[in-house]
Structures are given as C-alpha cells and as structure tokens.
Design a protein that fits this description.
two-stranded antiparallel sheet; 173 residues; mainly alpha; 4 strands
Length: 173
C-alpha cells in the first residue's frame, strides 16, 4: 500500500474479515470485536506516535505554544513551520479511549458495547482533528471537509445511535 494508508480502510477490511471468519466458525461477532476493542485503542496510540515520528498526518500551521516544527527533509511533514501536532492529539485521544474502554469492560450491558464505544470515540475525535489536519487528502465541499472527515462523522453518528438503541434494548431485559 505504500508509505501512507488510511486507518479506516484497514479497519473496515479487518472488521469484515473477522465477521466472515466468526460466522464461518459459529462465533459471536460482537463478543470477538469487544475483545479487540482495547487493543485497537492501544494500536492507534502507538500508530499515531509512529505518524508523528514519520511526519505524516501533520497539522495546519498554528502559533500555539505546543506547535511542533519538523526539520527533517526525509520526513513527510511541511518543513520549518510550527504545526498542530494532530498525530499527538490522536495518540492522546486513543490513550484516553483505551482507559475508558478498559475500565468499562466489566460493566458492559451488551455484546458489542465496547466496540461501539471505541468506534464512537475514535471517529468522534477524528471528526474534530480533521479540521486541524494540514496534509493533502481528498477534499469535498470546496475544500471544507475531507473524505475521511465525512466518513468519521457518519461512523460517530451511527455508533452513537447504535449505543443508545442497544443500551435501551439491553436495559429492558
């Protein structure tokens, strides 16, 4: 896939494959996904640190005190300009997501709840962070939104709706 790939594309592919394998082997898909939810959050945490060190997925120029300046010409980031450290925003968000999911795992009320919490938190944060991204991505609506921005928003919305509906359904049992 080259040096850059989209996490959401990878996530869709792996999720689809996992669902097919679980159905084939008579396993419960949502239980299996819940097992992987904390690992996904930690994976994003470390993956976005890797993005930071490679300079990909960088942010727009800014003048904030925590802005980062990349100077390695072999990196992928815009050089010698203070930028939003969007990779670190994502990494810290993933760590927070892991803490939430891990602490919630023994109190879940339905299978798939941990996965839906992860999808909601990841995609919700991604929706916000996309506003601060400065790297070139497919843009829509006169450059206001990236394709990932729209997909992340739709995932956040659908996972929130699923969490509400399934929580109500589980509490009636």
């Amino acid at each position: 896939m080259g040096g850059r790939t989209c996490f959401l594309r990878w996530f869709y592919s792996c999720g689809n494959r996992l669902c097919l394998d679980d159905k084939k082997n008579n396993l419960k898909v949502w239980q299996t996904l819940d097992i992987f939810a904390p690992a996904l959050a930690i994976g994003v945490f470390f993956g976005r640190l890797g993005c930071f060190f490679a300079g990909c997925c960088y942010g727009k120029p800014c003048s904030l005190p925590w802005a980062v300046t990349f100077s390695d010409p072999q990196g992928l980031a815009m050089l010698n300009a203070p930028l939003h450290p969007t990779q670190l925003y994502s990494s810290l968000g993933a760590l927070f997501t892991f803490i939430i999911i891990y602490s919630f795992r023994k109190r879940k009320i339905f299978d798939g709840q941990l996965t839906l919490i992860w999808v909601f938190m990841y995609s919700g944060l991604r929706t916000i962070i996309e506003f601060y991204r400065g790297d070139a991505r497919g843009m829509l609506y006169s450059g206001q939104f990236s394709v990932t921005h729209v997909l992340a928003f739709l995932l956040a919305l659908s996972s929130l709706i699923a969490l509400i509906v399934l929580s109500k359904k589980a509490s009636k049992k």
